Prior knowledge:
Elements: E1 11-17, E2 34-38, E3 42-43, H1 44-50, E4 58-63, E5 66-68, E6 73-74, E7 79-84, E8 107-109, H2 114-122, E9 127-129, H3 135-145, E10 148-151, H4 154-158, E11 165-167, H5 173-183, E12 204-206, H6 217-222, E13 226-229, E14 234-236, H7 240-261
Parallel strand pairs: 1-7, 8-9, 8-10, 10-11
Antiparallel strand pairs: 1-2, 3-6, 4-5, 4-7, 12-13, 13-14
Helix pairs in contact: 2-5, 5-7
The chain binds zinc ion.
Amino acid sequence: xxxxxxxxxxxxxxxxxxxxxxxxxxxxxxxxxxxxxxxxxxxxxxxxxxxxxxxxxxxxxxxxxxxxxxxxxxxxxxxxxxxxxxxxxxxxxxxxxxxxxxxxxxxxxxxxxxxxxxxxxxxxxxxxxxxxxxxxxxxxxxxxxxxxxxxxxxxxxxxxxxxxxxxxxxxxxxxxxxxxxxxxxxxxxxxxxxxxxxxxxxxxxxxxxxxxxxxxxxxxxxxxxxxxxxxxxxxxxxxxxxxxxxxxxxxxxxxxxxxxxx
Length: 262
Ligand SMILES: [Zn+2]
């Protein structure tokens, strides 16, 4: 147990908690840097527990801008920032773990969002969707697989068993995609053509020659890169539809970032 101690013996650190982790903090510590005076030695996990934040809610701890383990020993004057499991800021660029991303953004969508599911898969996001999922099934899978529920059904999202859900505001499928890319700051996580748009399976690259008899000659002559879904037995290529969508999203995001900066 860590105790905040009197001024004479305290060692001070600075802390900042992000997004929904602020729900656990009193108002004078929400959404800003604050100082803590703690008896040392203390670990990062102990600081987080002291703040009343469940460790299961925490995905990433940074100490002086470097990723730190929960067992990391905190020193006086350290700056500790704490990010939740589904932080909506893009924290991937901050992480120094060279190979393994610490967070993988995965989704499960309700029956109203079939088109959005295809677009998210097109950009490489692990996205479960079936038009016959029941509400309980969605909640159950989301909990077990740590997926964010995207839904147009407010009743579903109000269930107390939903931990990470988001109500999709836009009606149009293109706007829905832009909304989700912005909300979860997914731009730097695009891995286009790594997932099947139909079934969400991971695609395999396939040699051009191997698809000659499976596609129209016009397409064969136009494109050099092809991908294969072993589950659907389908061949995909980066056709004009994909290019239009990718351009649309990038342009919208660029223009919004420009508007914010000005
Ligand atoms: Zn497939």
